[in-house]
Amino acid sequence: xxxxxxxxxxxxxxxxxxxxxxxxxxxxxxxxxxxxxxxxxxxxxxxxxxxxxxxxxxxxxxxxxxxxxxxxxxxxxxxxxxxxxxxxxxxxxxxxxxxxxxxxxxxxxxxxxxxxxxxxxxxxxxxxxxxxxxxxxxxxxxxxxxxxxxxxxxxxxxxxxxxxxxxxxxxxxxxxxxxxxxxxxxxxxxxxxxxxxxxxxxxxxxxxxxxxxxxxxxxxxxxxxxxxxxxxxxxxxxxxxxxxxxxxxxxxxxxxxxxxxxxxxxxxxxxxxxxxxxxxxxxxxxxxxxxxxxxxxxxxxxxxxxxxxxxxxxxxxxxxxxxxxxxxxxxxxxxxxxxxxxxxxxxxxxxxxxxxxxxxxxxxxxxxxxxxxxxxxxxxxxxxxxxxxxxxxxxxxxxxxxxxxxxxxxxxxxxxxxxxxxxxxxxxxxxxxxxxxxxxxxxxxxxxxxxxxxxxxxxxxxxxxxxxxxxxxxxxxxxxxxxxxxxxxxxxxxxxxxxxxxxxxxxxxxxxxxxxxxxxxxxxxxxxxxxxxxxxxxxxxxxxxxxxxxxxxxxxxxxxxxxxxxxxxxxxxxxxx
Length: 577
Known about the structure:
It is built from 17 helices and 18 strands. By secondary structure, it is α/β, with parallel strands linked by helices. The protein has three domains: 3-12 and 463-575, CATH 2.40.50.140; 54-259, inorganic pyrophosphatase (n-terminal core) (Alpha-Beta Complex); 349-457, Diaminopimelate Epimerase, Chain A, domain 1. Helix 13 (314-348) crosses helix 14. The relative contact order is 0.09.
């Protein structure tokens, strides 16, 4: 079995007769666009300057107009409505979006509800519905949740509460008996908007309700553009495809977020030194911004992301952001402690094909993060569990660029589990501690079989878009790659396989990271590169100075002392023998 790097399989192969670019763009950018089937001037225009006029009409989504009619009635009769959202950032931004949107449309009685991640868990819960009934709620709209909430919806019906479900997750065999189910992915919806996240479906609901009010000559103060900062956070953090409407709205949403009027978001951007950037990128949101907010619901210490989104007082917002940073520091401490122990368990746990680590010392809120780190450290599927009493609650992750399906693996172990769910690359599970040994045995059966199937195959350990040389990264590259933003699922940031390059020099940074100076073997052009968590120990690097190398890199903007320069971010690197 041999490790290899390969071009991404979904890309279009470049024609040997590559046409002329319709713009004066670097040749490497034109090649990149061609691999993504963007080959005409019109397609380039649509990519870099999408029009909001081309958005799909909200009533294309099944049950949308009926939902809007029900809310028009609620507005006219002064009903008490509740926005019920999931606890993740998609749900949280969706709750904030609907809260502001309904207020701007004239609703006076609005309650907000999110279940707690650790103590309540995912979903629409009957006990919450009963509590909302006691508060006088007569109409509930869900966001990013509800499509599998059959039992809770039945409870609502018995109590005389109408439920409008807006969601994007896949349903069970039977849909909930709700007043309406607004979900592009429910199986019978013709809209073609299945790429929307939960917050995105909520945004489309407000579009539809705005239309309904205007049809009835009802005045309002809703400016949909002002909600695009929340739409962008939900869309980028939920990793839905950045295609169609998502791409257009996030393109403008990043501008809205940069100039946000929300005191909480503004204070967080300032704390992270993102407020003064010329432009925000999708990676700024996903890598720097979102984890700080996600840590709030993971640790469940009182303050939640929703509190940051809806805070209207600037002074209070600054205090909340101080708590966010403090909470994130605790999350990192708990994560590092769990990671240290998990690495020790992983080193002593003998299995060639997967890692299993469970401990009473693991905080339940960080097991998913530790599973991700461990899967990359050992290059194996990792299952990390938090033990509380006689219960084990865990998360599983696969290494990047592998094709294991964790749901299939957990399905093989179902007789040992009390429950599981998730997606192919990320899943959750829980079981009784007495079943832990049996769970380990079932995992071994599954992964031993998979390993035998893969034995004679070359394993692709890295994918790239194009081959490139340092001379391809001219001064025109950075302005053009910015025009291609936003990057995300379905339109990923380009990765290049670097050719004809050697290591000229290096500098060790804090944390064991490396700053490299790479040089072309042909022209001697040099570029700076950052290599985080290098696979080669820093004290081994001197022997490779002057030696040719192979690398997979991203080319990114680096902001320092008010200057913007182009640098490479090393994803994978190996030196030629």
